[in-house]
Amino acid sequence: MKITESYIVNKDKFKDVNIQMPLFDDVLMKQRTKEQPKWLHFGGGNLYRCFHAKVAQDLLNQNLLETGIVVVENFGEALIKEVYQKNNNRSLTVTMKVDGSFEKELIASTSDAYFVNKNEEAVATVSNYFKQKSLQLVTLTITEKGYGVKDSAGQLLKTVESDINVGPKYDELTNTMSQLAYFLLKRYEAGKLPLALVSTDNFSHNGDRLKEALKTVVMGWVSLGHVSKDFATYLFESNNVSFPYSMIDRITPGPSEKIAVALEAQGIENMVLIPTSFGASLANFVNTEETCYLAIEDHFPNGRPAFEKVNNVYLADRETINKVDLMKVTTCLNPLHTSLAITGCLFGYESIYETVQDKDLLALIEYIGYKEGLPVVQDPKIIDPKRFIDEAIYKRFMNPNIPDTPQRIATDTSQKLAVRFGETIASYVNSSNLEVKELTFIPFVIAAWCRYLMGIDDAGNSFEPSPDPLYEELFSCVQHLRLGSDNDVHKALAPILSNRELFGMDLYLIGLGAKIEKIMEQLVSKPFAVRETLQIMIREEKF
């Protein structure tokens, strides 16, 4: 059977392979969405397919929502053509449990999907959606780099500079923020209609970052006379447009070949992985974990779906959501993930599950989570921080069926450090009873990342670091370091550790730069020095 078949007419086919089906008519849902769209989403990747689309599906199943989500994509043309359009915008979610079993659900809540680069018809259609009074929210999962408008030196990216100069001419715009600003201009022109712009990407204060990135483009247009100042006022100073904070959490790795084979063996067709020109594989299914959280600031100027009726979705005020987000992104999950990713790559591991079977790496994240992170966590009350770490380390990371890799998580690490470690470091700096110089394992991970940038693993073998927009710049700093040689570590690390864009501060000025350099000297002293150094630190810091 195929996931494109009618689950209303062929219900037994879906039951025979244990696929949970939607409880609504997706044909009717699509028609209603065209007439009165409520929800647009930018970035139709795996996280969207297994989380946002699932939230909408749960509401549709309860008759609490009549319309679906319209997906807008400006990067993955193959994703739209091969995955969305060929499957009637449906997807199969495979939830992998610790005991080895997995559940399957047909997700059919995406009403349409458009690729908006070099596609005038798609741009016109999406523009029309933005003009509709019924539109309540636009959510985004475009990764941290999707919000980038400046380089590490604080200068405008060339693409953004060009976009500002040409003004709101969509076919000449290349940056995601510029393209979004174009669509928002259409909503402004339709009558300054209200809207919530909800970043659901994995970093702190994501609503503010989205707002500031858009402001960079829009104020650039204003200064050159491309748009009126009133447009900027509408977006940033009125009550018409909101930029809520959010926290999202669901480990969603790339599609697993093992899962694909299992699905095909069950008689579900077209589940084989689809190769792409950019390296990653696509699939008509998404494999993900059981645990998930979505917390959103309840600020929607044009109303919102009944999110409070969905399991694992939390609504609260900005302060509470900020605490939830900081808990997860800066202490209780993301720093642990990044720590495993960096060291896992250096130790040659190819799955997160393998990394936590390594007693040294398990101890590393226990120290970072419980000893260095928890003391500065602000308890958000709606989610318990200690339980969150317990669940992350001993349930989620320990799930052998989650095919997540250190290499995937290490992608774009330069864009994540300020949030995943810089916030905790700043909390120590600002604390009246904690000393930043007492931090041990966060400095170790930062040193290990510098060691990782060399592209040489702990055994002395070369490996290919994961993609990172700043990799060439960073590699140029460490490329002259050699294992076992008389290295000038300070010269290599000074441009990195003093970079405020990377860490949110100059690590030398707060007293950590020299400590990280000292650790780095050990890490480059010989092959296998990363593990040896970590083991020594664990013995010395036993708690």
Task: Write a structural description.
This protein is 45% helix and 11% strand. The chain has 23 helices and 13 strands. With 543 residues, the chain is α/β, with parallel strands linked by helices. It has two domains: 11-301, 3-Layer(aba) Sandwich (Rossmann fold), CATH 3.40.50.720; 318-540, N-(1-d-carboxylethyl)-l-norvaline Dehydrogenase, domain 2, CATH 1.10.1040.10. The model has no long low-confidence stretch (mean pLDDT 96). The radius of gyration is 24 Å and the shape is globular. Strands 6-3-2-7-8-9 form a six-stranded parallel beta sheet, with helices on both faces.
Beta fraction of the residues? 5-15%
Q: Output the CATH topology of the largest domain.
A: Rossmann fold
How many helices? The count is 23
Number of domains: 2
Low-confidence stretches: none
Give the strand line-up of the largest sheet.
Answer: 6-3-2-7-8-9
Task: Determine and state the CATH class of the largest domain.
Answer: Alpha Beta
CATH homology superfamily name of the largest domain: NAD(P)-binding Rossmann-like Domain
How much helicity do the residues have? 40-55%
Structural class: alpha/beta
Averaged pLDDT: 96
Q: How many E-type strands?
A: 13
Question: How many whole angstroms does the radius of gyration measure?
Answer: 24 Å
What's the quaternary structure here? Answer: single chain
Distance between the termini: 55 Å
Shape: globular
Task: State the CATH architecture of the largest domain.
Answer: 3-Layer(aba) Sandwich
Biggest sheet overview: 6 strands, parallel
Protein name: Fructuronate reductase
Domain Mannitol dehydrogenase C-terminal: 326-507
Pfam families: Mannitol_dh, Mannitol_dh_C
InterPro entries: 6-PGluconate_DH-like_C_sf, 6PGD_dom2, Mannitol_DH/Oxidoreductase, Mannitol_DH_C, Mannitol_DH_N, NAD(P)-bd_dom_sf
